[in-house]
Amino acid sequence: MRVTLSVIKADVGGWVGHSSCHPSVIDRARECLDGGRESRLLIDYHVTSCGDDLALIMTHDQGVESDRIHKLAWDTFQEGTAIARKLKLHGAGQDLVADTFPGNIQEMGPGVAEMEIVERQSETVLVFMANKAYSGAWNLPLYKMFADPFNTSGLVIAHNMHCGFAFEIYDIKGGRKITFNAPEEIYDMLVYLGATNRYSVKAIYHRDTDEIAAISSAQKLSMVAGRYIGLNDPVLITRAQGTFPAVGELLEPFAMPQLVEGWMRGSHNGPMMPCAQAQANPTRFDGPTRVTAYGFQLANGLLIGPRDMFDDPAFDQARHQANMIAEYMRSHGPFEPHRLTLDEMAYTTLPEVLKRLEERFTDL
Ligand code: F6R
Ligand code: MG
Q: Measured between alpha carbons, how far is 47 from 24 in angstroms, rounded to an integer?
């Protein structure tokens, strides 16, 4: 059976500040998607949140980039925004830069990750969601999952994965893309993957079968209505088991709380903390960055789950380490490398301040 898994997320208003999503907004989203399931547009759905981002996880038979599915998501975000306005939540509708459905939802703010697959006998999928991060945050974990034998023993041990994986990488600021084959091109690939503020893994494919293994919400950076669209709070879908890495191999990279951009005002580097959904409400200095993972088994498109994968004491050490790193990074205050470099700050509110000070400079 062919089934499409769509994960579409947007920040439609924060409760409190930018820390979390209000339960009434989540309830309203459930009602909207319930309507979609009753009308048989959706096979199944799950609504959740990571920080102040509302995430719609949906299965259907409409394929990727379906107008009907994107319209349903758009309308759901509008309904959530109406609730957010009524409750005067912070930044109501902030990720929706158009008033009417624009046709292509991802060019108007929300993040989109979708894959159409032939459901296997046992189709295990993981949905990763990050808050206070940019799309390059998936580069390091995806490299470990699909190219690093020290992380994924299946790359060495499993005959059906030994061929390696192909990485499709977006140059989000240059509007280009390139594909590299792992393992033989990993040195070339890392030239770009390491530059997380410019290059983002979009998709990964199994090299024997060409089957899609992972898809992220990475997209070309664009300026709409005076705001940069497509950087914030990415989502990621990965398939697991069989010809793909095991669930534990996909989760393993997050045992190391990597430094990512996105903390406080999208302007600071800090550790990415893996946590249960209930703990994904960043408060300290609006952070530190959170990542959650929801696991599902698909059964003819039904989402059997979620299992809250980081709700496991085995990740306590990573959370502890993330807190220690957070403490250390915070002690730098407004200094780099806690604060991003000026180049990277071009996508924040700093240019407004710089503009004002520029005229006071005199030539040396
Ligand atoms: C939002 C974020 C926050 C905000 C900060 C200022 O995802 O990262 O750190 O940037 O709380 O928010 P505003 O400008 O909305 O008052
Ligand atoms: Mg947000």
A: 12
How far is Cα 356 from Cα 274, in angstroms, rounded to an integer?
A: 39
Q: Would you say the C-alpha torsion 319, 138, 223, 98 has a positive or negative sign?
A: negative
pLDDT tens by residue, 8-64: 999 999 999 999 999 999 999 999 999 999 999 999 999 999 999 999 999 999 999
Ligand 1, residues 9, 11, 15, 18: which to mutate, most atoms within 8 A of Cβ?
A: 18
What gap in Å lies between CA 197 and CA 137, rounded to an integer?
A: 9
The reply to whether ligand 1 has any atom less than 6 angstroms from the CB of 264 is yes
> To which residue do tokens 């089957």 refer?
211
- Tell me the H-state helices in the chain: 23-38, 67-86, 139-147, 154-157, 186-193, 247-251, 263-266, 316-330, 350-358
- Domains, the chain: 1-118 (3.30.70), 119-356 (no CATH)
CA dist 145 and 255 (Å) reads 12
